[in-house]
UniProtKB/TrEMBL annotation:
It is a multi-pass membrane protein. Residues 240-271 are annotated as: Disordered. Residues 255-271 have a biased composition (Basic and acidic residues). Gene3D superfamilies: Glycerol uptake facilitator protein. InterPro entries: Aquaporin-like, Aquaporin_transptr, MIP, MIP_CS. Belongs to the MIP/aquaporin (TC 1.A.8) family. One of its GO terms (cellular component) is plasma membrane. One of its GO terms (molecular function) is channel activity. PROSITE patterns: MIP (PS00221). PANTHER family: AQUAPORIN TRANSPORTER (PTHR19139), MIP17260P (PTHR19139:SF199). This is Aquaporin. The keyword Kinase does not apply. Its main location: membrane.
Length: 271
């Protein structure tokens, strides 16, 4: 029974002070609000004949996500995506109740972001306000496949850069995640609009009224994210320091350089 209570995470819901649940929920809400507001704004063209470039859209979504994750990751973990939250739930990195609440506020934040964008955009312009749609030459199953692999890549990157036992990762984890999102957009905008995020598409759907193939944008990234999370955790995760023996001979450029330097130092001393 105690194990069930721990997995549900009721204690986190009733926590107070700095651990109060409203803090990470607010962070996830704000993060998704800005993702839909600023990300989808890059799709809007304020004239009747022009169109936004894939380069602009891809970089905007990637940079907005990297910025938001950098701000809120210490509060909520910087999920900003139900696919990320569900993958974290499956791998026991977040409790069930907290994860469900994350998904609710992520969707609410996305709706608010898209609603603000609608209010700031002329009624006769803006098109579908960045709503993701499966290309008319693809069938929904092909769209699902593309979103599956986009979700897979995103969660693969997230689990890799956030692996607590890796000592070879340098640089900014939020930037790496943002670049992964940008890469996904570069490759898949013409296929599905490159959602990778069920909440992002849900928010746009609520405001635009376009609900075609909504299941593609939920099942695709979520199932792809779960697959990536499980593969990384059980096959590719770095071992904990206590499990590394002193005689560990796994190849590492850093270790090789250290051994060579020690050998050279000994030779110099002997001379």
């Amino acid at each position: 029974m105690s194990w069930i209570k721990e997995r549900l995470g009721w204690s986190e819901v009733v926590a107070k002070g700095r651990r109060a649940i409203w803090r990470p929920l607010l962070a996830e809400f704000i993060g998704n609000m800005f993702l839909n507001l600023l990300g989808c704004a890059s799709v809007v063209v304020l004239n009747e004949t022009g169109s936004s470039s894939n380069l602009l859209i891809s970089l905007t979504f990637g940079l907005v996500l990297a910025s938001v994750v950098q701000v809120v990751c210490h509060v909520s973990g910087g999920h900003i995506n139900p696919a990320v939250t569900i993958a974290m739930m499956v791998t026991s990195n977040i409790t069930i109740i907290k994860g469900v609440l994350y998904i609710v506020v992520q969707c609410l934040g996305s709706v608010v972001g898209s609603a603000i964008l609608r209010a700031l955009t002329p009624v006769n312009l803006g098109g579908n306000l960045g709503m993701t749609t499966v290309h008319h030459m693809l069938d929904p199953l092909q769209g699902f496949g593309m979103e599956f692999f986009l979700g897979f890549l995103l969660l693969f990157v997230i689990f890799a850069v956030c692996d607590p036992h890796r000592d070879d990762v340098k640089g900014s984890a939020p930037l790496a995640i943002g670049l992964a999102v940008a890469a996904c957009h570069f490759s898949a905008i013409n296929y599905t609009g490159s959602s990778i995020n069920p909440a992002r598409t849900f928010g746009s759907a609520v405001v635009s009224g376009i609900w075609d193939n909504q299941w593609v944008y939920w099942l695709g990234p979520i199932l792809g994210g779960i697959a990536a999370a499980l593969i990384y955790k059980h096959c590719l995760a770095a071992p904990a320091p206590t499990s590394r023996s002193q005689g560990d001979t796994d190849y590492s450029p850093v270790r090789v350089e250290e051994k060579e330097m020690k050998s050279l130092t000994k030779d110099d001393n002997a001379a």
